[in-house]
Amino acid sequence: MATMTAPRTVRTKKRATVAATDPKSPNLTADQLEEFGNELDALRQRVFADLGEADAAYIRMIVKRQQQFEIAGRALFYLPPAWPLAVAALSISKILENMEIGHNVMHGQYDWMGDPKLNSRIYDWDTMAPGENWKYGHNYIHHTYTNILGKDRDIGYGILRMDEDQKWHPAYLGNPLYAFLLMVFFEEGVALHDLEIDRIRTGERTWEQTKKVGKPIIRKVSKQVLKDYLLFPALTGPLFLSTLAGNAVANVIRNIWAFNIIFCGHFPAGVATFTEEECENESRGHWYYRQLLGSANITGGRLFHILSGNLSHQIEHHLFPDLPARRYPELSVEVKALCEKYGIEYNTGRLSKQLFSVARKICRLALPTRRTPAPAPVPVADDPLAA
Amino acid sequence: MGIATTLLGSRAVAALTAPHGVDRYLEMFNPMWAATEVRARVVDIHRENPDAVGSAPVATLTLQPTATWRGHRAGQYVQVGVELPGTARRMTRCFSISSAASLPGERFTLTIRAHDEGQVSRFLVNEARPGQMLHLSQAEGDFTLHESAATPTNNRLLMISGGSGITPVMSQLRTLLRDGYDGHAGRKVTFLHFARSTEDQIFADELAAIAAADNGVDVHLRHGDQRFSEFELRRLVPDFKDTDTWACGPAGLIELVRAAYADSPRLRVEFFKPPAIAAGSAEGDVSFARTGASAENSGATLLEQAEALGLRPEFGCRMGICFTCTSRKTEGTVRNVLTGEESSLPEEDIRICVSAPVGDCVVDL
């Protein structure tokens, strides 16, 4: 289980990342961090105690709508003139399934319902990444070690340079191109992510570990290919190729959407990264603090939030990954108030603003970072880790 | 129906309907359509002990299962899952089937006592109405009658039950009588039952009719303070230790019956677990059922206590967010160390990294 051995980026110097990247973030003392953590714990507990029929009805309604889009999409491929409609319906179905259903159900957000069909241990989403691998890499590694360089493999996914502190290499000149390819082939990228190919190359991962992760990938990819590129096209008989193309386009549309929502969650300007030293023996308050500074939200309407699986509330998702995502909008009001109280910046903005910010970062980091005199190193706190 | 069911249950259809599976689509159109899972609609609810004062109400529910129901053998039970109104949480409990053996897709009945602490049984007896949908398992359990009316043996059969433990043996008796069991060929059936009072006697009229009929079945009903004794059993069935016996009832009755039979392989038992009582302290024992490890409860989280015993359960974040360590708690109460919330539900999935046992606790690890 313990594959998190030698970190890829080894650091020796303790560094005040938070202060360096975002001077607006305060230096909370250990006591303040503890109080901050307690307030968030209380918030979490209040919502958890309130979970009930409305949440169950909501997720069942979303599943039903998604199934209706799925049926409509699959059926409309029988009518060649309706091809664009079929692709649109199927794309919406896949987006809803991946974002609001799959991602959130597999987080365990609905485990309390006791419904095996909505249980994190049983559900496996409609994408090439096998649930069991993803839950390890995402629920455990990414959500526990969020934005810790060398630990959180979602910083650049082992392909991109998304942080100044990732050492520059000429290969990163292709940063924008890699990002574009990852966007189009996001589904494949996420499936292969857990293979940690970069670490196989450096010998940090054994063949045994690779085999254990690889087998489910082969199984799941085969299932997805069988369904979208063989069975459903075959069912439309002479329209085989048109259906196959439609399914491929729907998958790519879903890829582009998911990529953009997710990249806006952690990579806009102002999002902080952390060193392993900063997070050793971390207190619960500091964990919350890191989740907050390591995530960014996107503003938008109700429909936009649903289609993004409420990951447009990435901050609330990272603070409370096991609470049903439909609660994030109401939680955000109180989280924002807490941020104001403690003077912590709450990173949010329109989709266009966050996307532009991410795109700029991807291009900027393709080039080596210019050495500018760093702002005077301000410690994050006297001793932020003790609690 | 056969071809349609086979087709709908095929792997190709499963691949096409992934990730939800074909049943999620079928139930959109009709809750009684299913290809693999089993559901049932309650079609009738009949109160069994309307005059009983001071004891919990008992009702018989007639269920129409989906075509996926494979039928049951007399003496088996079924898991019943229901979303209780107000909580949206699905609770699943086991109930013995009280009607005679059923064929695939056939109706059957559950006879349930609404225990004070039983949320599911209380709902089914007091609140459920005809039309209510239930989630079912297939019939399970091997407390079954392997003899049929047609089996040419001279074996005598003995059934001992207490309270609502009458349900599986009633299913056996009904099956025998329905299928033309002939008591005159020397195969007597002795049916011994203990109930709290005559008013609380389940199936009283039917048992009286069976007792009165010329069928080779002896019915002995004991009410009130009359408790099971080996002495009395020996009087009814002198060679009881060599008689095929099915006993079902509360743990106290079963203990007495077991003692009377010593190690006789002719005795088959089924009993209800007494409800676990929360002691409100860290004391008690923690047991890990699969490995058989157990120790005094130290008050630490279940993950830590399992590790202290040398077990290596899977885990991830160790802070309750990633669900890697989720395990099944079969008995006892746990406290969420983050929220302080306590939970005593049996057969509950818990995150062992943030759950500390309160009193005795059994986890499937």
Rounded to the nearest angstrom, the radius of gyration of chain B is: 23 Å
| CATH hierarchy: architecture of the largest domain in chain B | 3-Layer(aba) Sandwich
Classify the oligomer. heterodimer
Low-confidence stretches of chain A: 1-24, 376-387
Query: Major sheet of chain B: order of its strands?
Result: 4-3-6-1-2-5
The domain count of chain B comes to 4
Reported for the largest beta sheet of chain B, the result is: 6 strands, antiparallel
Instruction: Kindly report how far apart the N and C termini of chain A lie.
Output: 28 Å
Question: Looking at CATH, which topology of the largest domain in chain B would you report?
Answer: Rossmann fold
- Helix and strand content put the structural class of chain B at alpha/beta
Bulk shape of chain B: globular
SSE run of chain A: HHHHHHHHHHHEHHHEH
Strand content of chain A: under 5%
What is the domain total for the residues of chain A? 1
Of all protein chain pairs, which has the greatest interface, and how many residues does each chain bring to it?
A-B, 50 and 35 residues
Q: Hey, roughly how much beta strand do the residues of chain B contain?
A: 25-35%
Taking pLDDT < 50 over at least 5 consecutive residues as the criterion, the unreliable ranges of chain B are 274-280
* Rg estimate of chain A, integer Å: 21 Å
Number of strands of chain B: 17
Largest sheet of chain A: 2 strands, parallel
Helix count of chain A equals 15
